[in-house]
UniProtKB/TrEMBL annotation:
Source organism (scientific name): Blastococcus mobilis
Residues of the FAD-binding domain: 9-351
Keywords, comma-separated and alphabetical: FAD, Flavoprotein, Monooxygenase, Oxidoreductase
Record's protein name: Pentachlorophenol monooxygenase/3-(3-hydroxy-phenyl)propionate hydroxylase
Cofactor(s) the protein requires to work: FAD
One Pfam family named in its UniProt record: FAD_binding_3
InterPro entries, per the entry: FAD-bd (IPR002938), FAD/NAD-bd_sf (IPR036188), RIFMO-like (IPR050641)
SUPFAM superfamilies given in the database record: FAD/NAD(P)-binding domain
GO molecular function: FAD binding; oxidoreductase activity, acting on paired donors, with incorporation or reduction of molecular oxygen, NAD(P)H as one donor, and incorporation of one atom of oxygen
PANTHER family named among the record's database cross-references: BINDING MONOOXYGENASE, PUTATIVE (JCVI)-RELATED, TRK SYSTEM POTASSIUM UPTAKE PROTEIN
Length: 399
């Protein structure tokens, strides 16, 4: 088919990894893109999502960054699982086979964003506008043909209206204004327990290619601890902590240092980043509203065990970008965009189901559930069938 003229740029709300990926993929199809982000500039604070999987590396390689992300990342080859201080079992990952990429790499989201920014800066079809917070969305005309999307954005100079042919909303978990403007529900739940993350730089011989998961260790009784290796001798330690946990008080009392030393022993370390957060399990009711598609954390939130958050968001972007391109070019009818909702909403529901099962095992809601988990963990030390029931997070697979 011949190319049809595109009525204005495609708008992408959100300059995180999902929005960055979407912009690069849309530009790869020859479409002009305007990326809008509410922040004044890129904030390189915290490592955030760290585990990027092979199918996502494949998507990033199609826009020129996958190999570099893989080169800079760390791949752990052994997953060790403990109950209290007894190792229950370990799992080794198979060789990568003929794929040029490992099954996943651990790398700071900030580093991934920096590499994607470099590619965006070299792409003349992409314009990034910082300091544009979307406060209103209006759709003009039909869902195909000469229709348009008009975004009202709050900026330092006042309100600005930005028009485009389509909108891919990748504006993150806190984009309530966007979901409200689109008439979307965001049903689900928030888990009560908090989780403390510390990324620390230290020397832990033998741990560089191991992920360690501790159920109910003596040094975090009744809760869990997860340890991941990252580049540059950095390790992420993730503690489940009580609902009333106060990080500032923990630091002041010396409790944070004690927590860290219970894991790494008496060796020097540097805290690179720390944060306290809660897990959410939510999904929008629709991922297409006319000329608007919604992706990533704006559309779905899942517990991070299994690395299904950022990874599923990038696959949202990949699915959306080529479909918007085909409709915008006149190569397919606008009804093609319905398949984006059909496919990616189903993927989100699957991720909610899988991570929900993990959270029920990690944070039992009843005494009966807690007793069942204890039974599984005690049997897993000697019973292979019980080991298969230990759920510390199921790694994502392409939907």
């Amino acid at each position: 088919m011949s190319r049809s003229p595109v009525a204005g740029p495609v708008l992408v709300a959100g300059a995180g990894p999902v929005g960055q990926t979407a912009a690069l993929l849309l530009a790869r199809w020859g479409l002009p893109v305007v990326v809008l982000d509410s922040r004044p500039e890129r904030d390189m604070v915290g490592s955030k999502s760290i585990c990027q999987q092979r199918d996502v590396l494949d998507v990033w390689e199609s826009v020129g960054v996958g190999a570099e992300v893989a080169r800079r990342g760390v791949t752990w080859t052994t997953a060790r699982t403990f109950h209290r201080d007894t190792e229950l079992f370990s799992v080794r990952f198979a060789a990568r086979g003929r794929s040029p990429f490992p099954p996943f790499v651990n790398i700071s989201q900030c580093e991934t964003e920096r590499l994607l920014d470099e590619r965006i800066a070299a792409e003349p079809l992409i314009e990034v506008r910082w300091g544009h917070r979307v406060v209103g969305i209006a759709q003009e005309g039909p869902a195909d043909g000469a229709g348009a999307v008009a975004l009202t954005c709050a900026t330092d100079e006042g309100e600005a209206v930005v028009r485009g042919s389509y909108l891919l909303a990748c504006s993150g978990a806190r984009c309530d204004a966007v979901r409200t403007a689109l008439g979307l529900s965001f049903d689900g739940q928030t888990f009560g327990d908090q989780f403390l993350i510390c990324d620390i730089r230290t020397d832990l011989p033998g741990w560089q290619q191991e992920r360690r998961f501790y159920f109910d260790p003596e040094w975090n009784p009744g809760r869990q601890v997860l340890i991941h290796p990252c580049p540059d001798s950095t390790f992420r330690i993730d503690w489940q902590v009580p609902p009333g946990f106060d990080l500032r008080a923990e630091e002041t009392s010396g409790g944070l240092d004690r927590r860290i030393r219970q894991v790494i022993g008496d060796r020097p370390y540097e805290i690179v980043w720390k944060s306290v957060y809660r897990f959410h399990s939510r999904v929008v009711d629709r991922m297409r509203v006319g000329r608007v598609l919604i992706a990533g954390d704006a559309a779905h939130l899942v517990a991070p065990f299994g690395a299904r958050g950022l990874n599923s968001g990038v696959l949202d972007a990949e699915n959306a970008a080529w479909k918007i391109a085909f409709v915008a070019r006149g190569w397919a009818p606008a009804t093609l965009l319905d398949s984006y909702h059909d496919e990616r909403h189903a993927a989100a529901l699957e991720n909610l189901e899988v991570t929900g099962a993990t959270m029920r095992f990690l944070v039992p809601g009843t005494e009966e559930d807690a007793g069942r988990r204890l039974d599984v963990l005690e049997r897993a030390a000697h019973d292979p069938a019980a080991r298969a029931q230990v759920d510390s997070g199921r790694l994502a697979e392409p939907f």
